[in-house]
Predict the structure.
Amino acid sequence: MQERHLIQICILITIIGLFVFIIFYEEEFKEKTISEMHSTIGSKGIVIGRVDYILREEPLIFILQNEEKIKVFYSKKFEIQIGDKVEVYGETTQYNNEIELLALKVIKK
């Protein structure tokens, strides 16, 4: 009888935990503009724009432009060309007194 009660309690706690998770879950990355990303160092978001200029191929450093421009640093090998539309998941950092986007993931659109 005790084993059955323990299983029921475990199931109940699991269901309650799932409901709490669903209620309080907040996306880590939300779509933002470049100006919103510039506002705070450490800001995380998704920025969509066109590749304006490629500074370096490996690690990949390029300029992303939509209404403004931001330098993007991506440590993985990735094939892009000037004019490609990309979606960048990243976090703003400061390097040499410039705000840059440290990309965690880049997707060609």
